[in-house]
Specification:
The complex is a heterodimer of chains A (about 350) and B (about 350).
Chain A (H helix, E strand, L loop, with lengths): L8 H5 L21 E7 L3 H17 L5 H15 E3 L2 E5 L3 H24 L1 H28 L1 E3 L2 E5 L3 H17 L5 H14 L1 E3 L2 E5 L3 H28 L4 H30 L1 E3 L2 E5 L3 H17 L5 H14 L1 E5 L17 H8 L7
Chain B lengths: L1 E8 L7 E8 L2 E5 L4 E7 L4 E2 L8 E4 L5 E4 L2 H10 L8 H7 L1 H33 L6 H14 L2 E2 L4 H17 L7 E6 L7 E3 L4 E5 H6 L3 H16 L2 H20 L8 H33 L5 H15 L8 H8 L13 H10 L2
Helix pairs in contact in B: 3-8, 5-7, 7-9, 7-10, 8-9, 10-11, 10-12
């Protein structure tokens, strides 16, 4: 599945976030040139369904070759329908580049599976190699995606280095896990900082102001609730073991759902509300109730229709993001200079995709 | 002649200029009322993005200046008039025709269904029996070490019992000795209870509990035959290939599903894999049946021991073993049969009784 840009496609091309949370009264409204520009999403589920089903049809008919073109068409649909200040985003990836990446990924995958089945000891070594290559794959993938995203004919970019990626993607989550989740908020903050501060629009860098402490505070509520939930479950299984098999799922499912929803909301809001692009900031307000109803109905309908609902679900998610995201622009957005072009291959992205490596952004 | 209104960007910075697209004699230009922003350029030198739904079109001129335009119809008209062979977009034509969409839906559903039921298993079968099997020899050792560490404890069966069972196995295991490298091992199952399992290249493990549960050695021979079936039909390799192929198929269908919770894709994946697993069990059962017929073992011996194994696993220790309550739970197959790696015992028993 899509590794790097886990949420919607549109999110990746609209990377800049903002700092409303820290807007102190001392911030004098300078010149009051600042304008609030909403993002809009104009796609519709019915329209996207047709694109989606034709994509799958052609992919099946061409035995998978078309999947590269399908990916580009999907990307173009979601980018093209996302607008900011009446200009739309553009997805410019070349399908042939993606196809090449996919073929390489497929060959590697076939080798990996064969080795895994025939020589499990060697496959341990291979897995380790893959793990070490993972940060590199993530960087390539982000760079490919960013380089092929444009707004007003100026491309985005991503300049992360292996060392930083290694820390942000492997070491920090490991520390988070080893500390039983206590350091997870800090790990998340480090990842976001890595992703955002290495991103640029043209030659303008994004910056990220949230600290590990901010993240810790934001997730404190979740940690308390989860710990309380676990204690409750343990208490039930000790005090009423007979009913435990019914009571525990009844309690755990809503708790699990709540945790997922809370996590998504907080991550998204924190990401945008603490990012700046030059002097422009972002305002994102995902809310518990509306987001929960989006996520639950999307999941439910997709399951009930055996997947046919996927196009509508994706459109609704993109719409939700656009409706809850604004850019606080300090000027008319005319002043961003383009950067020197560089070609980025799709290999990282495709290898990451096929090995099913999720990387939350 | 003015074609459409839109925005002009020069590609050096993000400055936006509201402008018009003009066409004269197959030459395109972008201008405002006062100035010409992009001089006349032959239509075929301009890259025009293909149509997708109602998303704006981007016209890219040779020096990377662009014109963004929401008037899709005007652009389509322009492409149609010019006799250049610029693609009108096959995909968009398919997407716009109701009939094509209907056909697409039918073909996709049929293909996915057929792929899961028939395509993937057949593919895996072909691949598994093409691969040389010498290479898989090392697998068992690693898996066995892992099992010994985490699941099993050393057998507590008396040596005489072990020898008796091994002797009973000789006729069957000898028959396949030239094809397979069969090695019978005994282990105390612990949590696993009465069970037997086959590792990919021929190591077959019986738990002490299973040996004790069997009333006759013929029942154990039936189980052995079933496990040999797994090995000889290369089930573990095929299972591996099938689950990889299935993952690929689902990724293709869902694209980047990740915006929706991934639990949606996990559920059908797990259900399908369980389906595959049950199919392998049926195949091993059929194999066992054949072996039993060859050996002159009454077919009911296999379901007999299966029943006892199931009772034990469902009803726990011996106290409740014969209880009526337990009998009742056995008959509740229902929806849980879709969540199991093995087919319902009832179904398997029938198989063995129906076959003459």
């Amino acid at each position: 599945m899509s590794n790097v840009n886990t949420h919607t496609e549109t999110e990746a091309d609209a990377p800049p976030p903002q700092t409303s949370a820290t807007a102190t009264p001392t911030t004098v409204e300078k010149a009051s040139n600042a304008k609030t520009l909403p993002f809009t999403f104009n796609g519709s589920g019915n329209e996207y369904f047709k694109i989606w089903i034709v994509n799958i049809l052609l992919t099946i008919v061409t035995l998978g070759i078309y999947s590269a073109w399908a990916k580009v068409r999907n990307g173009r649909y979601f980018y093209g329908n996302t607008q900011l200040d009446d200009s739309s985003f553009a997805y410019l990836a070349n399908p042939f580049t993606i196809l090449k990446g996919r073929l390489i990924a497929f060959v590697l995958f076939a080798i990996f599976v064969t080795v895994q089945n025939l020589m499990p000891l060697v496959s341990v070594g291979l897995s380790l190699l893959l793990l070490m290559a993972f940060p590199w794959l993530v960087i390539r993938s982000l760079a490919f995606n960013a380089n092929n995203s444009a707004y007003r004919n100026v491309r985005f970019g991503f300049d992360g280095k292996y060392g930083e990626a290694f820390m942000a993607i492997l070491i920090w989550p490991l520390l988070g896990t080893l500390s039983l989740g206590l350091l997870m908020p800090v790990a998340l903050q480090r990842q976001q900082k890595f992703l955002i501060e290495n991103s640029r629009y043209g030659s303008s860098k994004f910056s990220f102001s949230a600290t590990g402490r901010d993240y810790f505070n934001a997730f404190l509520k979740l940690i308390v609730i989860v710990v309380a939930g676990v204690i409750l479950v343990v208490a039930i299984s000790i005090m009423a073991p007979a009913r435990a098999s019914i009571l525990i799922p009844v309690l755990m499912v809503p708790l699990y759902l709540y945790a997922i929803i809370y996590l998504n909301i907080t991550i998204t809001n924190m990401k945008f509300n603490n990012s700046l692009l030059a002097a422009h900031s972002f305002k994102c307000n995902y809310e518990l109730k509306s987001y929960a109803s989006l996520l639950i109905t999307n999941t439910l309908f997709t399951a009930l229709t055996l997947g046919i609902y996927i196009p509508w679900a994706k459109v609704r998610s993109a719409q939700y993001l656009a409706n809850h995201l604004e850019l606080i622009a300090e000027d008319d957005l005319n002043g961003f200079a383009a950067a020197e072009q560089e070609k980025v291959s799709a290999i990282g992205q495709e290898v990451g995709d096929i090995f099913d490596m999720e990387f939350g952004m | 002649m003015k074609i459409a209104q839109g925005y002009y960007y020069d590609g050096k910075n993000s400055r936006r200029i509201t402008a018009e697209l003009h066409e004269e004699l197959g030459m395109l230009s972008v201008q405002t009322e006062k100035t010409t922003l992009q001089g006349a350029c032959a239509l075929e030198d301009v890259q025009i993005s293909s149509r997708i739904g109602n998303t704006p079109r981007h016209l890219t001129f040779p020096l990377n200046t662009t014109f963004e335009c929401s008037d899709n119809d005007a652009i389509d008209q322009l492409l149609k008039q010019s006799n250049t062979s610029i693609h009108t977009g096959l995909a968009h034509r398919l997407e716009s025709g109701k009939r094509y969409i209907l056909i697409a839906i039918i073909v996709v559903i049929t293909a996915v269904w057929g792929g899961i039921i028939w395509g993937i298993p057949t593919l895996a079968y072909k691949i598994a029996f093409t691969l040389p099997d010498s290479a898989s020899q090392h697998i068992d050792q690693g898996v066995l070490e892992l099992l010994d560490e985490q699941l099993f404890t050393p057998t507590e069966l008396p040596v005489t019992t072990q020898q008796r069972v091994l002797n009973a196995f000789i006729p069957v295991s000898q028959k396949y000795a030239n094809k397979l490298d069969i090695e019978i091992l005994f282990r105390k199952g612990g949590e696993l209870g009465p069970n037997a399992m086959a590792l990919p290249s021929g190591t077959i493990i019986f738990t002490d509990e299973l040996i004790e549960l069997a009333k006759q050695d013929e029942e154990l021979v039936a189980i052995l035959a079933h496990e040999i079936g797994h090995v000889i039909r290369k089930h573990s390799l095929r299972q591996g290939i099938q689950s990889s192929a299935l993952t690929l198929l689902i990724v293709t269908i869902t694209g980047d599903i990740s915006s929706i919770s991934s639990i949606v894709t996990a559920i059908p994946l797990i259900l399908t894999e369980l389906g595959y697993s049950r199919e392998f069990e049926r195949e091993a059962d059929r194999f066992a049946m054949q072996v039993m017929q060859d050996q002159g073992i009454p077919l009911h011996k296999f379901p007999d021991i299966l029943d006892r194994m199931e009772k034990r696993s469902r009803c726990g220790d011996k106290e409740k073993f014969e209880a009526l309550e337990c009998e009742q739970t056995l008959n509740e197959a229902g929806i849980s049969s879709y969540l199991s790696t093995h087919p319902p015992t009832e179904e398997r028993r029938k198989q063995f009784y129906i076959t003459p």
